[in-house]
Design brief:
heterodimer, A: mainly alpha, two-stranded antiparallel ribbon, 15 helices, 2% strand, B: 246 residues, alpha/beta, four-stranded antiparallel β-sheet, 24% strand
């Protein structure tokens, strides 16, 4: 028993580890085709569909960030709209100072990351439900403070400057491309992060925080980093949101609705998977487009779906699919080669 | 300098005393067993060493480091590995990834070195063949082995084993004790809480008996088991009131 028995280790003790269950060629080709298609979308589809896709990708960005927080680092935030709003207002402020709104998108992300860092020292004193409520308090506090600043439009808001020279269709076109590229960076960045050593730490925190600590994982700093990254991502989402609208109002950008949507799509798609929030966002948009004429029924059906998925597929639709078919579009795991099956 | 040194460690949860002036030392390659009735404070003692709970008073030194202000993760990185009585696998990660996390974080290894150390720990505990299985699919026996494999993957210098033999067959216990005896030859100090006394006796050369947070006996295993104090702890009655402080 003390000698290697599985046959997977080479004579020098080294082993071969794969990072994918299938050939990466298929993933790369598929990703290339998808990126090319979505980049060309404004020229292929109608302006109205491009606007719908813009809103879809805004939700994908937010949900991917929320999933990183809740699905991996175990932080159920219901206050991520704080950073959506702060990102929106960072863009507004910089545009008022004469910057091109599109150039402000990465700066809005940096501003939100910088604000979120000290906030973690306040929030991380709380756990579980108390943490969740505190994030909501942070969001409402941010909204109330922003609402008092007259130059940013106070409580009534103001329209985005710097876009007057663009026609509405050109604004929609450029907004789509900006949103799509931010979504691409966010999803690709999340994929890279989860394949790194930190990704393994986050997965271990998700599964058992106490054991993660005693295995040497620095849980607190991993959580802090994820919180800052999620704030930056939601800040970028807020920036592209107000460019696409293009109007900024505290009650709109700091709305709890954003957190509810992030939670809903991550949950039905599959928490703790990269694919889940994307698939959840797609389902959400299809349902929204189909049911929006049904008035209150639209919300009742959404709520019912959330209840059904939570009860019967707690790992979400993608989680259930993956467990059944053992496949991953964006694999982040480690598989040891040449393992003999146990007797 | 001792490898691990506890000086006057005390801990209470309300009125319940789980540690009362606990003092002992551990040298490199030592193998120490801890016995005691349920609620004696054995697991709490491990939790204070690993940093999961803080003692009310006293100091714990790992070589020249005072662990008082070190987090559980930095203690693990310093070389203190532990297992849990109720296994805590990372259920949605594979068995290999469970060990890999420990090798990369606790063992501070990267790339192929971390892969090799993680897999060696699995092979050593008989889990090599299960490397690609989700840890959540393992049965109790293999979950216990995974606890041991994960702590070994860190390359620990002190290993705290919490009832790792509980629920195993005689054959499995023998396999386990063989591994643990081998760890001593590698210089790893082992502290083992166990109710399966037969397993302890075949492995440790020193035994502590803990009752109500107090070390009531410390010495060679046979002497400790034969002592009046230990008999009192297990049999209760009049003697216990004379042995234990009020």
């Amino acid at each position: 028993m003390n000698q290697p028995t599985s046959g997977a280790a080479n004579q020098d003790g080294s082993i071969s580890v794969r990072r994918s269950t299938h050939s990466p060629i298929f993933t790369l080709v598929g990703a290339f085709v998808l990126v090319a298609l979505l980049t060309a979308a404004p020229w292929i589809f109608s302006a109205q569909f491009a606007t719908t896709l813009t809103n879809f990708f805004i939700l994908v960005i937010m949900a991917t960030m929320w999933n990183l927080l809740a699905g991996y680092a175990g932080m159920v935030s219901i206050g991520q709209q704080a950073f959506v709003g702060l990102g929106a207002y960072a863009t507004l402020y910089l545009a008022l100072k004469g910057m091109d709104p599109f150039v402000t998108i990465p700066l809005a992300a940096v501003v939100c990351a910088a604000i979120s860092y000290p906030v973690t020292y306040l929030l991380f004193r709380l756990r579980g439900g108390y943490f969740s409520i505190a994030t909501w308090v942070v969001a409402d506090t941010a909204m109330l403070i922003i609402g008092t600043i007259a130059v940013l439009g106070g409580g009534t808001g103001r329209s985005m400057p710097g876009l007057q020279n663009l026609s509405p269709s050109q604004t929609a076109h450029d907004s789509y491309l900006a949103t799509w590229f931010v979504a691409l960076i966010v999803v690709a960045g999340t994929y890279y992060l989860l394949r790194s050593r930190l990704g393994l730490v986050l997965a271990s925190i998700r599964d058992n925080e106490v054991a993660a600590r005693s295995s040497g994982a620095n849980v607190r700093s991993a959580r802090r980093l994820v919180f800052v990254i999620a704030a930056a991502g939601c800040g970028a989402a807020g920036a592209v949101l107000v460019i696409s609208q293009p109007f900024v109002q505290p009650s709109s950008v700091f709305n709890l609705q954003w957190a509810a949507e992030m939670l809903f799509v991550s949950m039905i798609g599959g928490l703790g998977t990269i694919e889940g929030p994307i698939i959840g966002s797609a389902i959400y948009f299809v349902l929204q487009q189909t049911l929006q004429q049904q008035g209150a029924w639209y919300l009742i059906i959404f709520g019912s779906i959330a209840v059904v998925v939570a009860l019967w597929q707690p790992r979400g639709l993608w989680g259930a699919f993956r467990d059944r078919f053992h496949t991953e579009l964006l694999p982040v795991g480690h598989w040891v080669d040449n393992i003999k099956s146990p007797e | 300098m001792p490898l691990l040194q506890l000086e006057g460690i005390s801990k209470k949860f309300g009125q319940v005393v789980v540690g009362e002036e606990i003092t002992f030392q551990l040298e490199q390659g030592d193998s120490v067993g801890i016995v005691g009735p349920n609620g004696a404070g054995k697991t709490s003692l491990f939790a204070m060493i690993s940093g999961d709970i803080r003692p009310d008073s006293g100091d714990i030194f790992f070589e020249d480091m005072n662990l008082a202000h070190m987090t559980p993760s930095s203690r693990a990185r310093a070389g203190i590995g532990r297992t849990y009585q109720v296994p805590r696998p990372f259920e949605h990660m594979t068995v290999f990834e469970n060990a890999l996390l420990a090798a990369q974080q606790g063992g501070r290894l990267r790339g192929k070195k971390s892969y090799a150390q993680a897999f060696a720990a699995l092979d050593r505990t008989g889990l090599g063949e299960y490397a690609n299985r989700p840890a959540g699919s393992l049965m109790l026996l293999h979950r216990k082995r995974l606890e041991l494999a994960r702590s070994l993957a860190m390359g620990p210098r002190v290993l705290l084993l919490d009832e790792i033999a509980g629920g195993l067959t005689d054959l499995e216990v023998n396999e386990l004790t063989t591994i643990i005896r081998q760890l001593r030859t590698e210089g790893i100090a082992v502290v083992w809480i166990e109710h399966v006394v037969r397993a302890l006796l075949s492995t440790v050369d020193r035994l502590l008996c803990l009752a109500a947070g107090v070390i009531v006996a410390d010495g060679a295993p046979q002497e400790v088991l034969a002592s009046e104090a230990v008999r009192a702890v297990y049999l209760g009655g009049k003697i216990i009131n004379e042995v234990l402080p009020q």
